[in-house]
Write a structure and sequence with these properties.
The chain is of the alpha/beta class. It has 8 helices and 12 strands. The protein has 2 domains: 195 residues, Rossmann fold (3-Layer(aba) Sandwich), CATH 3.40.50.150; 68 residues. Helix content is 27%, strand content 36%. The longest helix has 13 residues.
Length: 269
């Protein structure tokens, strides 16, 4: 069931169509076991903020753990609804979906675990919005609850290079048509050093029997964080670090890190 709590946002209309297949094909995406393990440890229910098409949400529900998802993208939630209908009844009954904005969502529930997986925090572009998003998560935590989220560890040599260069990112075969190949290309358009954001374009190209038959594109904007920036945000949102990692295998958060992954709790008053 999807509860529409705000007007539908028509974001990610193109990406939503290809999201599940694209990220199934992404070989270096290792976050799911990490979030599944956290959900098992807490036992649920879990709140996932910015749940998208259910890439993390549905596997948690398949473990017999109740999970509630929130997202502001109507196209993403529409795909999630279709995915959910294909699940067994016992899984469907563990899931509830709400449309809501990461910065403003409030419900009457609190949770032992709140998760914001796969970088939705990097779609918060101002300090004000970043604090609001973290306060949304903190608001929904049980007194001893945990918040878990991840962002990428910024590689500045890559952030500031390659502007205007088109790169092939992902490739997969369409499930319904083995002769059809999908390719996602990425082109960085600009970098804002002061705001710590970059803009880019995703291009989705469809090839049949080796020939290009269609192309769709969608803009992307992301922010990046430094470690001190995040520590300051946590203080302003009333959160304290419980654990921090540089990978989903729980490697140290140091100069070798590719990710910045945090487990947080409400701060002592």
């Amino acid at each position: 069931m999807i509860l529409r709590m705000i007007p539908a946002i028509d974001s990610y209309k193109i990406s939503a169509k290809y999201y599940d297949d694209a990220y199934t094909a992404k070989q270096d995406l290792h976050d799911l076991p990490f979030y599944l393990d956290l959900a098992r440890q807490t036992g649920g229910p879990v709140l996932e903020l910015a749940c998208g098409t259910g890439r993390i949400l549905l596997p948690i529900a398949r473990q017999g753990i109740a999970i509630h998802g929130v997202d502001n993208s109507a196209p993403m939630l529409d795909v999630l609804q279709k995915n959910l209908k294909r699940e067994p009844k016992d899984v469907r009954e563990l899931v509830s979906i709400m449309q809501g904005d990461l910065r403003h969502f409030r419900s009457h529930r609190s949770y032992p675990l709140v998760i914001i997986p796969f970088r939705p925090m990097q779609h918060m572009y101002t300090v004000e919005d970043q604090i609001k998003a973290l306060k949304t998560a903190a608001y929904h935590l049980d007194p001893d609850g945990l918040l878990a989220f991840d962002v990428f560890y910024p590689k500045h040599d890559r952030l500031f290079s390659g502007i205007g260069v088109e790169e092939l990112e992902l490739e997969w075969t369409a499930k319904a048509e083995p002769s059809t190949i999908m390719r996602r290309y990425f082109r960085k358009e600009a970098v804002d050093k002061i705001a710590q954001t970059f803009t880019a374009t995703f291009m989705y190209r469809t090839y049949r029997d080796g020939k290009l038959i269609s192309e769709e594109s969608e803009p992307l904007k992301m922010s990046w964080y430094t470690y001190p920036h995040l520590r300051a945000l946590f203080m302003l949102a009333g959160l304290e670090i419980v654990e921090e990692y540089g990978s989903f295998a729980k490697a140290p958060l140091d100069n070798h890190a590719g990710q910045m992954i945090f487990l947080l709790k409400k701060g002592s008053e």
